[in-house]
Fold this sequence. Notes:
The chain is α/β, with parallel strands linked by helices. It has 2 domains: 7-107, Rossmann fold; 108-218, Rossmann fold. It has helices at residues 9-14, 30-34, 50-58, 71-83, 135-142, 158-170, 187-190, 197-204, and strands at residues 40-44, 63-68, 92-96, 111-117, 145-155, 174-180, 210-216.
Amino acid sequence: MRLRNIPRAESVLKGCREVIDAPALYRGSWNDVFGNENPLYIEIGMGKGKFLLTMAERHPERNYIGIERYSSVLLRAVEKYMESENEAPRNIRFICMDAADIADVFDQGEVSGIYLNFSDPWPKARHARRRLTSKEYLYRYDKIAADGAMLEFKTDNRGLFDFSIGEVRECSRWEMGGYTTDLHSDEDMNRGNVMTEYEEKFSAKGNPICKLRAVRKA
């Protein structure tokens, strides 16, 4: 899908101090960026930002970074953040980058949690390695995750979900911590759930939401 270019995106992103330019410069020192020693959680493919902004508000004891590949998409989340003004959470930052380069931005053991919400399914078999839950990406996450780090993935795409379960089970560095094919009917998996914009949309149509939780092995 070709994304529409938004001319103002570059200037808005540069004007927001929470958007980190040249993030590789901070590899291994993200606690210095936040000014504390709180654990770091990241969302890859944050869309309009509702999920991450809500998580940052609920958990001031954590630091959060939202990652988006395209500036036109990140713009929506940043504008929502900036609209909050003085009420905006201070424990959040944003990066515009390709997730394939994630090990260049975060050091080993630096990330305590990874969220993947309604990621691009890349439906063609030849594109399977591009899926954010593929073994290729799971090994990338292993390079930045702390022992016992959590990875959570939500989708309404059952084909992608089944693929993701298989990839986690075949990856030597991650183990399954639980999964459900009907999140909103699963009391345990749904506890503390924050709905994304896509989740609200798909749920309203009656689509069941799938979720899995994986844990990085020590």
